[in-house]
Amino acid sequence: MTMEEKRYCYRYPHPAVTTDCVIFGFDGSRLNVLLVKRGGEPYSGWWAFPGGFIRMDESADEGALRELCEETQLKPSYIEQFHTYSEPLRDPRERVITIAYLALVKIQEVKGGDDAKEAQWFPIDHIPHLAFDHDVILRDALARLRERIHFHPIGFELLPDKFTLRELQTLYESILGIRFDRRNFAKKMHHLDILNQLDETVWPTPKREATLYSFNIEKYNELKQRGFRLEF
Amino acid sequence: MTMEEKRYCYRYPHPAVTTDCVIFGFDGSRLNVLLVKRGGEPYSGWWAFPGGFIRMDESADEGALRELCEETQLKPSYIEQFHTYSEPLRDPRERVITIAYLALVKIQEVKGGDDAKEAQWFPIDHIPHLAFDHDVILRDALARLRERIHFHPIGFELLPDKFTLRELQTLYESILGIRFDRRNFAKKMHHLDILNQLDETVWPTPKREATLYSFNIEKYNELKQRGFRLEF
DNA sequence: TCAAAAGTGTTCTCCCTACACCCATGG
DNA sequence: CCATGGGTGTAGGGAGAACACTTTTGA
């Protein structure tokens, strides 16, 4: 880099600031993470989270959404900032602080929309080595997701609008890593009264049809206002 | 600022990055926040959280602790990063992104150690207008504190090493803004088995003595490892 | 007729909640 | 002797956990 190119000068050293987005999707049986293959140095050819440098006229939230859209064409159904990583040597080029986001997408709605980008879904238990400190970031994102799902209905953001009870249960089981009794899970969901039972059915297996449900956000908000705590 | 003083140049614009520390203390009856009065512009004379610019050779965690120590001489018994604020215009001087921390101190151990600095404790319901977006930051910090206290024993970080059951209950009530039944609260604490009942007593009122307790972190860790969830 | 998955109900236990009495002390 | 606050016990209800049978369908 020549001196002429360095046009932005400050009295004190400033770090660069990026956003990184950990995007979770659920394929019906397993939790997945969307990674992009890096083109340039450093870590060329490694997998990493979509993200990039924040612009001076946008907030981190806006930057995260912009980068996410640019690199993956995805519209997340949920996004939340969860931690900022600032180890001085985490990027070999210069001091880079990254603000990390956790995003959830309804994977079914966008399958195949990956464009020409080298983006790919990886099951949560088959993640390749990641660039920078992204393995740490992933671990933290998963912990936050597990924490959040206990008291917020964000699990529904990973499912299609209509789903079966079994899909919902499999989702929770794969995120939390525990198994539920099928009958107790159904009872609990019905008791919570945040699901709409639809008239439609599907054939998830060739054996027998299953009724479809949708998430009732109005009922959820009612309950929340009355001092209610969702828990799994 | 003259051109000669602007010695740190980059190809792309970089924001400045600071840390800010929301420090909570409990005076025995109310939750308090430590604020410092700003000397320089902008917001000269306004109250704000202790904090400052991050150095290029330190992580945000290190920077937050350094600033906290420099400005208040306090050693927090607990500190945790909780959110990063990045609205482009939140600082009138230049683009400043701040990484906000939540800290708890045992207020009794440091009373009067405020040095010559203009630092002062404010009860949580009598907070003056704050500089920058610090009122938003405070609101978020309080929300995080309330969220954390449900499942982590961080409340004990606000109490002296020895405390009465009433002090503990008052602490929880003032943080969560709800009242507990005295008998049920005591029963729950005893049942959790994370308190050491000491042989000592104090006279919190001139009426009758009360037994002192200390927090038993070993028992808490045992329970945590067995898949236990602390809840209030 | 058999295998596989959907749908549903009961019992037991534990924890939370509401609630009342006794005791020690200082005024 | 009375007001104040500390310390403890009990009964009832609700939610989670354990658990089994029936139904539907394709092979």
Record field, number of beta strands of chain A: 10
| Helix and strand run of chain A | EEEEEHEEEHHHEEH
Radius of gyration of chain A, taken over Cα atoms and rounded to an integer in Å: 20 Å
Silhouette of chain A:
elongated
Structural class of chain A: alpha+beta
Uncertain runs of chain A are none
Oligomer: homodimer
Tell me briefly what this model is.
The first copy, chain A, has helices spanning 60-72, 134-149, 165-176, 182-192, 217-225, and strands spanning 8-10, 16-26, 31-37, 47-48, 51-53, 78-85, 96-105, 119-123, 195-202, 210-215. By secondary structure, chain A is α+β, with helices and mostly antiparallel strands.
Main traits of this protein?
232 residues; homodimer; two-stranded antiparallel ribbon; alpha+beta; DNA-binding; seven-stranded mixed sheet; 10 strands
Question: Describe it for me?
Answer:
2 copies of one chain form a homodimer. In chain A, 26% of the residues lie in helices and 27% in strands. Chain A contains 5 helices and 10 strands, in the order E-E-E-E-E-H-E-E-E-H-H-H-E-E-H. The first copy, chain A, has helices at 60-72, 134-149, 165-176, 182-192, 217-225, and strands at 8-10, 16-26, 31-37, 47-48, 51-53, 78-85, 96-105, 119-123, 195-202, 210-215. In chain A, a hairpin with a 4-residue loop joins strand 2 and strand 3. The longest helix of chain A is centred in the middle third of the chain and has 16 residues, at 134-149. The model of chain A has no long low-confidence stretch (mean pLDDT 92). The interface between A and B is medium-sized, with 32 and 32 residues. Strand 1 of chain A pairs antiparallel with strand 1 of chain B, so a sheet runs across the interface. The first copy, chain A, binds a DNA duplex (27 and 27 nucleotides) through residues 164-166, 181-184, 186-188, 191, 204-211.
